[in-house]
Every structure is written in structure tokens, then in C-alpha cells.
Here is the input.
Amino acid sequence: REALESILRQTYQDWEALIVNDGSTDDTSEVVKEYRRKDSRIRLIEHDRQRGAQAARNTALRAARGKWIAFLDSDDRWLPDSLEVRLKATKKGSQVVHSECYVFEGEGDLELFAVPPLRGHVYRELLRKPGPMFQGLLISRGAFARLGYLDEKIVAYQEWDTAIRLARHCCFEFVAEPTFIYDCRHADTISKDSLREAVGYEQIVNKHRWSILRHLGPKALAHHYQQAAFFYLKAKRVEHANRCSTRAVMCWPFRLGLISGGKKHFVKLMSKRWTHAHRNSS
Here is the structure.
């Protein structure tokens, strides 16, 4: 309800809201139908089974009729001028606008999230590290015409993959003032699911590895694989961590500081693996 209420409170009122019920078993459909009876701009689309967040976004994209596309997860809230300030930023000519946000962790005051302020041609920056969040993105329909639909196989860091793909063709603009509240209390956030975080990160790196190599070089790719290894270690999946760290060493067989601190045994193991691989190739 809070997400829907935040849409209704927008200062910019020329919108349509497509609510995709992704096979939920709660009262989502009834709540949306209740709001639909009050406001015809709200439309409900229901999946016959749970297909995931990216599939839900794609369903909404196929049904959307507007010139600009924005996203809002059910746990989060737009601030009242969210659409207005982002639409104003599009007048600078960018097809993709993203914004700062507040984060709420359940206790205390709202805090700034510190979203990376990406402006202009940002493809290299996004190959280096994640950037915008879906809730802060405003994307032109023309940009989606070039992008196609979202990758439904990616299990985490989905906005990172989307942003990388958009940045190949589009300029970005950044709104420094927060436009939404990111609610971290929900149990499904990737920060509370270490394995999904690790798998998603590795998926992104594997998908874009040739672009990372071409634009940033092997050391950057090695750092990405080390980061994936760290996430797998956090999820207690040592075998997967070893695989990613081996790839890191193969990309850049020199010292990398990302994981080495506090993980000396891990670096030593990877050094042995590199020596073994080098001998076998000699």
C-alpha cells in the first residue's frame, strides 16, 4: 500500500501504474483492485506463477504505453516529486536518468545511500562497478527499443546489467537529490542473501567479461572475479570461491589486494594453483 500511495502522491500526475503480481500468495491482487476502483490509471497484470523480478518488469514493459519508464519495488516508496525532478533532468538530452535515494533499515533516521553520480558516457564506469538502482531509473522508451527486454536469467545485480547495456548506447544524467526511499527491512534484499549476491555478481562478470577486458584490461577483470570469490566465501561456498579466485589469478597473476587482507590462506592457495597451472602449460 505504501508504494501505491507514494505513486498517487506524485506532483507529476500524467502517469500510468502497471502493477505486476508475480504469483504472490498474499492479498496483493485485492489491494491493487481496490486502488484500481478509485483510480483507472492503475492497472493490474497477474502472472500465473512466480517468474521473478526481471520477468515482472518485462511484463510491465510490454504493456507500458508511456514515453518514459520508471520502476518501483513493492517495498520501496517514491518521494512526492520523484517523477517531476527526474523528468526535468531529461531536458538535458539524456535518455537515462538516475537519482540519489534514502535508505531505511528499520531503526533510526533515513540516511543517504550515496549512489554513484554517473553522467554522460558512463560505459567504462559501469563495467568497473555497479551504479544506479532500479527505483531511481527513468528510461526513455527509445532506449528500451535499442536495449530489448531485461535479462531474466540474472538473479542479483539486475540493475547493474541493465545499466551496462543501456550505457553502450545512451548518455546518463544524475539527480543529486533523493527521489525514493530504499527499504532494506525486507528479507529478500541481496544484502541478506549472500549466495544470490555471489551468483548474480559472477553472472554479470561472465556476461560482460570481454567488454571488461577490452575497455579496462585484465587486472579489472581479475578484481571482479576476486569480488565474486569474496561473496562466495561470505556464503560459505568455498568451492565456488576457489573457482572465481582461480579465474582472477589466471587473468592477473600478480598481487591483488581485494581479498588478501585477512585471507592469506586463500591467496596462498591461489598462488599454488597458478604455479601448478603454469607448470602444466610449460
Observations:
- Confidence is low (pLDDT under 50) at residues 258-282.
